[in-house]
Amino acid sequence: MEAFLATPVGILALTVAKAMALLVPLLIGVAYLTWAERKILGAMQMRRGPNVVGPFGLLQPFADALKMLMKETIIPSGASRALFLMAPMITFMLAMLAWAVIPVNDGWAIADINVGILYLFAISSLGVYGIIIAGWASNSKYAFLGALRSAAQMVSYEVSMGFVIVTVLLCVGSLNLTEIVRAQSTVWFIIPLFPMFVIMFISALAETNRAPFDLPEGESELVAGFFVEYSSMSFALFFLGEYANMILMSALITILFLGGWLPPMAIEPFTWIPGPVWFILKICFCLFVFVWVRATFPRYRYDQLMRLGWKVFLPFSLVWLVITAAALKLFGWLPAVG
Amino acid sequence: MIAAAAFYIFAAVLIASAVMVVTSRNPVHSVLFLILAFFNAAALFLLAGAEFLAMILVIVYVGAVAVLFLFVVMMLDVDFSALREGFQRYAPVGGAVGLVLFAELVFVFATWRFADDVGGLRLNPTPEGVDNTRAIGRILYTDHVWLFQLSGLILLVAMIGAIVLTLRGRPNSKRQDIAAQVARSGSVNLRQVRSGAGLGEIGIERPPVAAPETPKKVEHHGHGGGHH
Predict the structure, then answer these.
(1) Fewer Cβ atoms within 10 A, N terminus or C terminus of chain A?
(2) What is the pLDDT of residues A90-116, one digit of tens each?
(3) How far, CA to CA in Å, does A154 sit from each of A141, A284, B68?
């Protein structure tokens, strides 16, 4: 067995097995995230949410998936056929691809690479392509407007997100995600870097096109925005991709600010619970806040969204980056870089 | 063996997509092939062990520059038949220029040889036991920090220049001053509303609507055999 795992075929088989062990629970998580979102929204709006299919509506996601599969895939005439079909695949694939470097526990990552955080940032900056290609290939005004909005929005918020990541990296001294979590064993970064956490969270909302920044979809003025022409499985892929991206962003926030798999304090009752459970709990907390925000805030106007990104977040995160660097230098807290 | 195979696959796709950038008829497809070419270049960087450069290539070029490129090209209104019109007329001139360039390239490559100790001649070989992210960081931020800052300043001047050239402060354009709006006294009223207040009455701010008058009892006079 050991000898087999050392051969190229063995390495491939092991990697596929690891990927399955991560992706299958992830997809089930995505399915139940849609259910949880509808339940939480229902509770916040004093109604019940899905409660018909299965006990507490627990089988609702599977009923929805089945319904999607049965529908006809419609490709509009005048659409760029290959690109039209490629766009949802890109969105879904990128949402899955990023999970390759996420450490669920100490040493539990499929690929524990040196530049993990840059890899995540690169993958999340590619998410815009699925949307922009979908909008262009649909040959529809609504879809195209949605795509243009989303391209501008995602590029804008990425800049301040980059500064937030750089601030965290200054405190860690490594680009490796496992190292970032290990550096928080004394104190989670949410405490010293709280303003950066807030900016990161809001940027994550904008990056995943969630309310109150869901202008690319904007059902009141753009019908459904970039995916207005999509139906059946291609629509389902967009939907899955969006929710998987939400989970991914929550995982990123958990790793950067909430101490990843670490318990709140390294004392008895907390250390009994294994690391992955803490990791999942923290992700669930972030996801709950995503839904909470959706139930609470009205949608931003487009120019206000741009103003918030460029004129508020960008200068603020830049100044905070300089302050952090100065503080680390003055107090001699800079991490030792090998 | 696997690394070599991967190299040839990525290199072949890179060259093929670079050719497609030039030859495809739809400019949007050209940009998409350009993005594919960037990706394969990043993969080649990875194979060479330069993971930092690979990720930066993807983040900067694919994630930002190419998006803006695509953005502009998608909004261009290009008439494709007009583009291809003068092909026959300009083909000889274009062909001649291409031939000259190709000949020059051949001359260059024919006389190009690697020095025997090429590894040692590099200006900054990666030090032992340091990954390339740190090696690049040392060169940029420790050895050549002033040059690096200077180039950053030049870029900043260029950016400000571009903004100054394109910004026109039109006097009659309407702008929203959010600070002024928020600072205006009495612009925001925070009011504690009793929980469940909206259920019994219409409108929390407005006075409750008066209860509808109960319809008068129709008096029956007992005509007998009336319409029901």
Answers:
(1) N
(2) 888 988 888 888 888 887 888 888 888
(3) 20, 24, 11
User: For chain B, what is the radius of gyration of the CA atoms?
Assistant: 36
**Residues A175/A122, Cβ–Cβ less than 8 Å:** no
B28 at A interface, C-beta within 8 A: yes
Calculate the CA dihedral of residues A174, A176, A182, A184 and round it to 10 degrees: 60
Of A114, A152, A307, the CB nearest to B51: A114
Name residues whose C-beta falls within 8 Å of residue A317's C-beta, 6 or more positions apart in sequence: A160, A163, A164, A167, A196, A199
Please answer yes or no on whether A118 and B32 come within 8 Å at the CB atom.
no
Q: Is the pLDDT of residue B226 over 60?
A: no
Alpha carbon dihedral B48, B51, B57, B60, in 10-degree steps, equals -170
Query: Per CB distance under 8 Å, which residues of A are interface residues toward B?
Result: 8, 83, 113-115, 118-119, 121-122, 125-126, 128-129, 132-133, 136, 144, 148, 151-152, 155, 158, 175, 303-304, 307, 337-338
| Residues B200-217, mean pLDDT to the nearest whole number | 61
- Closest by CA to A36, choosing from A299, A296, A287, is A287
- Choose among A158, A79, A249, A160: nearest CA to B62: A158
Number of Cβ within a 10 Å radius of residue A240: 23
Tens-place pLDDT, residues B4-62: 888 999 999 999 999 988 888 788 888 889 999 998 999 998 888 788 888 889 888 88
Higher pLDDT, B140 or A217: B140
Long-range contacts of A51-59 (CB under 8 A, 24+ apart): none
- Residue B51 sits at the chain A interface (C-beta within 8 Å): yes
Q: Are A181 and A103 in contact (CB under 8 A)?
A: yes
ipTM: 0.81
Q: Within a 10 A sphere around the Cβ of B185, how many other Cβ atoms?
A: 5
Question: Do residues B67 and B51 lie in contact, with contact meaning Cβ atoms separated by under 8 Å?
Answer: no
Domain boundary assignment for chain A: 72-331
Q: In this complex, do A175 and B70 lie within 8 Å of one another by their Cβ atoms?
A: no
Long-range contacts of A36-40 (CB under 8 A, 24+ apart): A36/A287, A36/A291, A37/A291, A37/A294, A40/A288, A40/A291, A40/A292, A40/A295
pLDDT band at A240 (very low <50, low <70, confident <90, very high): confident
Contact B11, B44 (CB under 8 A): yes
CA dist B172 and B174 (Å) reads 6
CB contact under 8 A, B52 and A337: no
Among all chains, which residue has been given the structure tokens 């302050």?
Answer: A323
pLDDT band of A135, cuts 50, 70, 90:
confident
